[in-house]
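Question (not urgent): is this output format expected?
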Amino acid sequence: MHPPHRVGLPRREFLRLGLLGASGLTLSGLQRLRATTGTSARTAIIVVWLPGGASHIETYDPKPLAADEYRGPFAPIDTSTNGIQLCELLPHHARIAHRFSLLRSMVHTGFCHQQGTQQLFTGHPVRILKQKPDHPDFLTIANHQRFDASRTIPNYVGIPPANYTGAAYLGSTYDAFRVTGDPNTPNFHVPNIGLAKPAIRQRVKERRDLRGSLDRLSRDIDTRHAMQAYDDFELQACNLLTSPEARRAFDIGKETENTRNRYGRNRWGQQCLLARRLVEAGVDLLTVQLGGKLCGRVGNWDDHPVNHNVFAGMKYRAPFFDQAVSALVEDIYDRGLDRRVMVVVTGEFGRTPKISYAASTGKGTASAAKGTVQPGRDHWPRATSMLFAGGGITPGQVIGATDIRGADATQDIVGRGDFLATMYRHLGIHPENIAINDFSGRPIPILQSGNPIPGLTS
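Got this back:
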């Protein structure tokens, strides 16, 4: 028998709000909690994820006064907000800087991709390399808290999900619905969404109802919870398969040519457009992972000198990134979604301020021929930059700073727990009140420590 676990409220208050039990906070408990705090259940988050870790110096934290071995070849440019400069590779960002805020002082201890990603998404001090986390990431937790199997469209969609994330002991029911194709291709479609013919949709529903009735006759009382989880998963799948609403939401072809061109007629642009389309249709939780061919030879932002010439790589991918992200941010505001939807742009860490050199391992876009010595930047979790837009933030500001080389955060340092506390606050989730049982039945608080980033929201 495990002792009672307390995470911030007396046990009587936990019981009153429905916060105890094997699955943590129930949907009805969450809705009651939101009703008492005035927080909307419709808030949403889009995480634009830069797998491999983008250079903060070549994006959101240029260092023009650093010595040659640090600063790189690109100059800073002024923006629409006085006092804020960005790397010259991001002119569209610069034009709309009054609509977002930058954090330049995120610090954690995850020096490899799995560690960095899992620290940011789970809040746990991950030290070993694992393809999937031991604890659920914050988006699967949010999906669990908001879960409603009767929805006709998924509440958590990954276009695709961020690498190295997952539901862990929450179970696969709460994982992201994966979109892995290229939305820019003429024949793009999402499999298993919205059967076209009403007669087929009805037949699928009837077969599911019959199967459910037969299954219930043979259940043992000891398997009730497991069967309920299976039923929820199956109902969700059936709803997706038979939902015309889901079919319309994922049909990016319904957007005008002008809108599609505004985001960029490439994979990243259309991924960001699809994300905007889905939050408008009622999806609350989205990731947009910007990887693949537009990154260069190794398909990500991991600009070690053996992979990429970091400066050629950044110059190649920046136009696609700059156009897609700026269009997404503008669209969120222009369509009146900015209070509901928060956009976050980041990768798992920054890159080393000192430029390193090594021989390239191969040919390809943004990489010199094999054996050619080229510049690169390596993993650097001591200074990571993030962009925040919408979600009620105070726009047009910079929070935190790094030193003259971009090596270490020097003011308003933010940790992984503070980042997650900010995400949960926007989603109306109170992490101090919620613990979820792990595989052994031990209740684990969904946030170990942290407070919302000061000054980010009004």
